[in-house]
Each structure stands twice: as structure tokens, then as C-alpha cells.
Structure to design on (611 residues):
């Protein structure tokens, strides 16, 4: 079981309040991703749950039990760090067995669990190596192994893939998702990468300046962002925002439209006109950055890979009216 | 950035390094050579380098006249004792400074180092008087304490630098893995810091072994270490270069051998943290 409840949890460092009181419930077995720009307090929030930082106020409950002042080791949570944080002087086997040794399990049981975890994580051939002799991906798997042998109530991941290169990151992302499918244990995952958040999460918590901006499933956040921040943060490339007459026409202060919801064409029967600035041809897709009169920032438009338009071409755009997001002067969604 | 090293350049560098090395080592070499000469040969003009009648006489005379083993034993106790005591005090200190620093930690470290800038003779009288009052004059306990205090700032600094290099996340990982403070120190931190602690101890043993100001001023006979043993051959009885050299060689031999075998460790210890 691993249901974690935060009740008016807050954190200040001296006079600086990094997390104003917030409430959040993480259901048992859920994969929750905390996402936000750097400095938004997502890692601090994770460390509060882990017990590595003391809360300044509020209560943390794990499976209904007050864990606010319980030391990290006694909370039944396992953590995977960005830097892997392996014990460099111990072999892989001893690294994975360390939490079991601390729990006082007998040697046979330790060995059984280490072997099992190593099999799951493809580490069986490396058990006698030191962390220094492993690649980044293998080190990360050892760190995960050290977490799973404990059979914790929940896993906490603190930007675990940031130190890996792009290709490895995609692979590990899948492995972690598969691990969650298999173990069905609660996982809390911190990242600044919204792609990781979108692809892995059951539930995303978008944080900004220590506040929760929105909580929801990836598609909920994508389809109905509650405010300008979430609208701009979730989705890649970013949502386009327009103000002025175009927004007024839709009865809003700001309207937002995603790159994939704008159609480009050469005909004259369109609503928006502009000239192509940069075009990025990815093969499968093409992204156009289009300068529109009356707008300071260029619009990003996503088109098929076969659309060939180049710098300086005049272009015609038709937004999909059903996918226009409307925001008021405070940046809040109006519909 | 790699710079091209031509063979000529390499040869010049090697020669220079050897020249500097020999220059530094020469006084020690000369002392050792002199210890094997007769008194007359020792003051011969021009000086004799290798071609003289090698003799062990000086060593037997020195051994006859003074009990080398007693001095040696005092040196060992004082050097090792002050080192162990110093490390016992410095480990927790450096620990808390590295992992739970306060706003004043940096100031405290600098203040500790600043005490090393005070000329030792400036506190000779207060310490001498204290030693008389406490009955510590000419006692090994007294010297162990004084030398420990003299070198403590360096020990704390070195250990602090070492501990700083240990990533805090590893300790946090240990905490998450269920380790209490005791297990964290025993199974994670200490094994990781062993090289640092070892080279700190090594350096401190050498510093304490060679310390002459306090050992000469605070001892007479009972607790006198090898520094006093050398000094006893220096002045009043006239010029006995060969015997003085023999005494010096006997005094520095143990630490020279220790340094020789542990030079790798020492260099690593002294440059640790300087380059990444």
C-alpha cells in the first residue's frame, strides 16, 4: 500500500517561503509526476515526502499514518537520486543489498532478493563490479535495484534521467514505466521535462513557485489547461498565445492555440496571414515559425512532413476554432 | 588542454626535476655520508664526497653514549599519540563543518588557521607556566597534548576538504536505505573517507615527528624525543660533525622510510580537492 497525503504542507528556508501550504493526495499505485521549471519547489516537495527535509508546517501521511516527524528510513519509501548516489566502495551486489542489510534480513533472503532484482534489471552479469565500472544507464539501474529490493510503499524519483544522454533517456523512461506496470507500486517522479511527465504519468502535478498550478491526467492538462502557465508549460512545441483584436474577437484577454491546431495553406480564404520565418523539417513533421502582423512573438505551426514552405513565403493559416483556449486578464481559463 | 611535449622539452624537464630533487635532498645525503666518516675526514678541506674510509664507528659511539631506543620510543609515542588524539577530535569537527555547516563555519575554519600564523615562541611562556602548574613538564602526555593542539587546525582543514568531496546525496541515500547515524558513519562515510583520513594521519605523524620547538623547550630527559637526541650532539662538547650526523641519520631514518613508502598516498592527500 502506498497512499500519500499532504495536508497543508509548507516549507520555508529562513524567511523565504519556498512552498506555501499545499494539499495533495497521491493514490495507491499511482504514477504521479511533479513537473515545473527549475526552482519551482518540486524537488523540495519530494524531499519533504522522503523526510530528508523537515516540513515547516502541515502534515504528511503515509497510508493514513502521520509520518511528518518520522525519520526517512522509517517511512517505508525508497528514493532514486539524480546522481544515482551509489556507494562507490561497494560492489553492485552490496549496493543493492545495503537496505536489506540495514533492515537486518538474513544473508540467504538478501541474496534471493538481490538476484531477483538483478534479473529484472538486467544486472546479473554486473553484480561483482563496482559502480565506477558501470555506464550511466547501468548505474541508474543499480539505484533502482536498491530501491525495489526494499519493497517500499512508494518510490520517489528525483530527476533520475537528467544525467543520461538523450537515447538512453528514452530507453530508461520505458523501463521505469514497465516497472510501474509490473510492480503497481506508487511512484512519485520529479522532472523538469514535460515530455517525461506526459509519457509516464497517470497524474501530473504542475508546480510553479512552490504552488500547485494544476493536477490532472496528461490529456486533461493538455486539453484543458487551467491557466496560462500550465497551457504554456505542457505541450511541445509550446502553445501559441495571441492578444489584441484576435483575442477580443473570441471574447478573451488572451487566446491560446497549439501548433497542431493551425492549418496552413496557400489559398486566400483564410483568417490569419503571415510570412514564414524559420522552418524546421523533421521529416515526419515540419514546424514553421510564422511572423504575423500585430503579434510580437512568431506563431509556431505544426504541419505534415510533406509541406514544403521556406523562409519568406507568404502563408495562410486557419485555426481550429474548437481548440482555441480562452484566458482572462488574470491568465485563468474562462470556459 | 593538451600541450605538445617534444622529446627535447621532456629531457629538459626531467633534468630540471632531477636537479631540484637532488638540491633538496643534498643536505640529507651529505648528513648520511658524513655519518660514515671519521671526525677528521668530516672536516677535511676540500670536503670528501665518496672516497673516504667508510666506518660505522660513529653509530656505535652514539649508541653507547645515549640510549637511542628511549628517544625513538618517545618520538613514536608523541607523534602517533598526538595524531590519533587529533584525528579523534577532528573527525567529528570536520564532519559537522562539512555536512551541517552553519553561517559561521567558514569563519571558524579561517580563525583556526589563523592560529597557525602566531609565532610559537609568543605563547612559550604561558604554556611553559601552565606545564609547570599542571606538572606536565618533561612528560609525554604534555607533549602529546601540545603537538595535537599545534597540528589540530591542519587536521581539521584536511579532513574538512576530504569530507566536502563526499556527495551529500550518498549520505541521504544511506538514510533512505534505513541507516541510522551510526551505520551511516560506519558503513558509508568512513570507508569513503579512509584514504583521506590515512593521508591526514601520515602527514601529521611527519609534522609531529619533526617538531623541534616545543619538544626541545618542554622536555629535559624523560620525555625527550629524537629532536632532543640530535640537539644533544650539537654544541657544547665542540665539533663532532660525524657523530652529530650519525645521530641525525638515526633520528630521521624512520620517518624517511615511512615517507618513502607512503609518498603516493601523501601526494594524493595533499593535492586532494585541488584538481577535479
Amino acid at each position: 500500500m502506498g497512499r500519500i497525503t499532504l495536508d497543508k504542507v509548507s516549507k520555508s528556508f529562513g524567511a523565504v517561503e519556498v512552498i506555501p501550504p499545499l494539499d495533495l493526495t497521491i493514490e495507491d499505485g499511482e504514477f504521479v509526476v511533479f513537473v515545473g521549471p527549475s526552482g519551482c519547489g518540486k524537488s523540495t516537495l519530494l524531499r519533504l515526502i522522503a523526510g530528508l527535509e523537515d516540513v515547516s508546517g502541515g502534515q504528511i501521511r503515509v497510508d493514513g499514518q502521520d509520518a511528518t516527524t518520522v525519520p526517512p528510513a522509517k517511512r517505508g519509501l525508497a528514493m532514486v537520486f539524480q546522481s544515482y548516489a551509489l556507494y562507490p566502495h561497494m560492489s553492485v551486489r552490496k549496493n543493492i543489498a545495503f537496505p536489506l542489510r540495514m533492515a537486518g534480513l538474513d544473508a540467504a533472503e538478501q541474496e534471493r532478493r538481490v538476484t531477483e532484482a538483478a534479473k529484472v534489471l538486467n544486472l546479473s552479469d554486473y553484480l561483482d563490479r563496482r559502480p565506477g565500472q558501470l555506464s550511466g544507464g547501468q548505474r541508474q539501474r543499480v539505484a533502482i535495484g536498491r530501491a525495489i529490493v526494499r519493497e517500499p510503499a512508494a518510490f520517489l524519483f528525483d530527476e533520475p534521467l537528467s544525467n543520461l544522454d538523450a537515447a538512453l533517456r528514452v530507453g530508461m523512461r520505458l523501463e521505469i514505466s514497465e516497472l510501474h506496470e509490473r510492480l503497481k507500486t506508487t511512484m512519485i517522479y520529479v522532472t523538469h521535462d514535460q515530455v517525461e511527465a506526459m509519457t509516464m504519468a497517470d497524474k501530473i502535478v504542475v508546480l510553479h513557485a512552490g504552488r500547485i498550478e494544476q493536477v490532472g491526467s496528461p490529456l486533461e492538462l493538455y486539453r484543458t489547461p487551467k491557466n496560462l502557465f500550465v497551457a504554456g508549460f505542457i505541450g511541445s512545441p509550446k502553445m501559441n498565445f495571441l492578444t489584441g483584436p484576435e483575442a477580443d474577437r473570441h471574447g478573451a484577454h488572451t487566446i491560446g492555440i497549439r501548433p497542431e491546431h493551425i492549418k496552413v495553406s496557400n489559398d486566400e480564404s483564410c483568417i490569419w496571414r503571415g510570412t514564414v520565418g524559420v522552418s524546421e523539417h523533421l521529416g515526419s513533421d515540419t514546424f514553421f515559425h510564422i511572423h504575423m502582423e500585430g503579434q510580437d512573438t512568431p506563431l509556431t505551426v505544426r504541419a505534415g512532413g510533406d509541406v514544403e514552405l521556406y523562409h519568406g513565403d507568404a502563408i495562410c493559416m486557419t485555426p481550429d476554432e474548437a481548440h482555441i483556449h480562452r484566458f482572462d486578464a488574470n491568465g485563468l481559463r474562462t470556459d | 588542454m593538451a600541450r605538445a611535449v617534444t622529446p627535447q622539452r621532456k629531457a629538459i624537464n626531467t633534468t630540471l626535476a632531477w636537479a631540484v630533487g637532488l638540491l633538496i635532498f643534498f643536505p640529507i645525503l651529505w648528513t648520511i655520508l658524513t655519518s660514515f666518516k671519521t671526525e677528521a675526514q668530516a672536516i677535511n678541506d676540500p670536503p670528501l664526497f665518496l672516497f673516504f674510509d667508510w666506518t660505522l664507528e660513529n653509530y656505535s659511539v652514539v649508541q653507547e653514549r645515549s640510549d637511542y631506543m628511549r628517544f625513538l620510543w618517545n618520538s613514536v609515542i608523541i607523534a602517533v599519540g598526538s595524531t590519533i588524539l587529533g584525528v579523534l577530535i577532528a573527525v567529528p569537527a570536520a564532519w559537522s563543518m562539512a555536512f551541517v555547516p552553519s553561517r559561521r563555519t567558514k569563519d571558524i575554519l579561517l580563525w583556526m588557521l589563523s592560529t597557525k600564523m602566531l609565532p610559537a615562541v609568543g605563547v612559550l611562556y604561558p604554556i611553559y607556566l601552565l606545564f609547570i602548574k599542571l606538572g606536565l613538564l618533561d612528560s609525554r602526555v604534555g607533549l602529546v597534548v601540545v603537538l595535537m593542539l599545534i597540528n589540530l587546525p591542519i587536521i581539521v582543514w584536511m579532513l574538512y576538504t576530504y569530507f566536502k568531496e563526499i556527495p551529500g546525496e550518498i549520505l541521504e541515500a544511506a538514510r533512505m536505505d534505513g541507516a541510522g547515524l551510526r551505520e551511516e558513519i560506519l558503513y558509508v562515510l568512513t570507508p569513503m573517507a579512509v584514504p583521506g583520513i590515512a593521508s591526514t594521519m601520515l602527514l601529521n605523524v611527519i609534522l609531529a615527528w619533526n617538531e623541534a620547538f616545543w619538544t626541545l623547550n618542554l622536555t629535559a630527559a624523560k620525555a625527550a624525543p629524537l629532536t632532543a637526541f640530535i640537539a644533544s650532539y650539537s654544541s657544547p662538547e665542540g665539533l663532532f660533525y660525524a657523530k652529530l650526523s650519525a645521530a641525525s641519520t638515526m633520528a630521521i631514518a624512520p620517518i624517511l622510510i615511512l615517507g618513502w613508502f607512503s609518498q603516493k598516498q601523501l601526494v594524493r592527500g595533499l593535492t586532494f580537492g585541488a584538481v577535479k
The interface with chain B takes residues 50, 52, 71-73, 77-79, 81-83, 85-89, 98-99, 102-103, 146, 150 of chain A (CB under 8 Å).
